[in-house]
């Protein structure tokens, strides 16, 4: 890569780190940039995943205040994310790149619908459980656990808009403030990306120059994204999630 190309990758890392912390979908910025500069698709995907891990750590640190009191929730859901990330990373290495292409836009659209209707749907789910006499699971219950595992599989395989999927699921099944759920989303996405990155480092071809550039940029972006995202009111945060998610769908369908 030339100096200008390296600067572009670094800038893409900043943007991706910020967007990942607020919403998710940062991969849709960095991945096409790496492809444009000549990296093979799998190498670009692998290098991108590894490079965005430091930015995810930065974003989680920025949301540390919202994470207070969520230890048990994150232990349960984090285990599902860990197993899902391992599964997805292995699938990336053994399946053709087109395997998930048809289903990914559909998953993102479902997640966006969940984000939009989340307040009403969450209230309906809670009322129905109360009417049935069933206790409301504090951490979402087995359905959410299975869904988080599935999101982890997708995140380990490709990862674009993984955050949109997670925040949509958490918003419906966990009755908590959306900023706290966004902090939890960042932790779960970090777990998936980190375990995938470890697997890729051991067994896949990695472009370490791209990794370093994205990592440095995403650390800066993660802090900027945390400062901006934490100040957004719930309605605005949902609107940003929907806009970014729609852009992700368009990019994936037209790519």
How would you sum up this structure, described in words?
80% of the residues lie in helices and 0% in strands. The chain has helices at residues 3-22, 27-36, 41-62, 71-94, 104-131, 141-157, 162-173, 178-203, 208-230, 234-254. It is globular, with a radius of gyration of 17 Å. The two termini are 23 Å apart.
What's the gist of this structure?
By secondary structure, the chain is mainly α. It contains ten helices and no strands. The longest helix is centred in the middle third of the chain and has 28 residues, at about 105-130.
Helical content band? over 70%
What is the chain-wise order of helices and strands? HHHHHHHHHH
In what range is the share of β-strand residues? under 5%
Q: Over all CA atoms, what is the radius of gyration?
A: 17 Å
Q: Which regions have little confidence, pLDDT < 50, spanning 5+ residues?
A: none
Mean pLDDT over the full residue set: 83
The outline comes out as globular
Largest sheet: number of strands, sense, barrel closure: none
Structural class: mainly alpha
Oligomer designation? single chain
Number of helices: 10
Number of DSSP strand runs: 0
Gap between N and C termini: 23 Å
What distinguishing features does this structure have?
globular, mainly alpha, 80% helix, 0% strand
Could you give the topology of this structure?
Layout: H1 3-22, H2 27-36, H3 41-62, H4 71-94, H5 104-131, H6 141-157, H7 162-173, H8 178-203, H9 208-230, H10 234-254
């Amino acid at each position: 890569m030339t100096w200008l190309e390296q600067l572009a990758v670094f800038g893409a890392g900043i943007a991706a780190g910020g967007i990942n912390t607020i919403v998710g979908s940062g991969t849709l910025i960095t991945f096409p940039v790496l492809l444009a500069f000549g990296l093979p698709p799998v190498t670009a995907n692998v290098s991108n995943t590894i490079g965005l891990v430091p930015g995810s750590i930065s974003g989680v640190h920025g949301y540390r205040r919202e994470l207070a009191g969520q230890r048990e929730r994150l232990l349960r859901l984090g285990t599902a994310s860990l197993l899902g990330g391992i599964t997805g990373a292995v699938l990336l290495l053994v399946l053709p790149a087109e395997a998930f292409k048809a289903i990914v836009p559909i998953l993102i659209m479902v997640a966006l619908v969940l984000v939009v209707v989340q307040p009403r749907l969450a209230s309906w789910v809670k009322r129905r459980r109360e009417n049935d006499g069933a206790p409301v699971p504090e951490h979402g219950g087995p359905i959410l656990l299975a869904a988080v595992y599935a999101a982890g599989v997708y995140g380990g395989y490709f990862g674009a808009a993984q955050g949109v999927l997670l925040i949509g699921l958490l918003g419906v099944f966990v009755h908590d403030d959306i900023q706290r759920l966004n902090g939890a989303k960042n932790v779960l996405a970090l777990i998936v990306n980190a375990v995938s990155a470890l697997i890729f480092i051991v067994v896949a071809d990695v472009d370490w120059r791209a990794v370093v550039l994205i990592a440095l940029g995403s650390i800066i972006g993660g802090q900027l994204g945390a400062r901006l995202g934490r100040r957004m009111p719930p309605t605005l945060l949902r609107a940003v999630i929907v806009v970014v998610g729609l852009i992700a769908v368009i990019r994936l369908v037209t790519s």
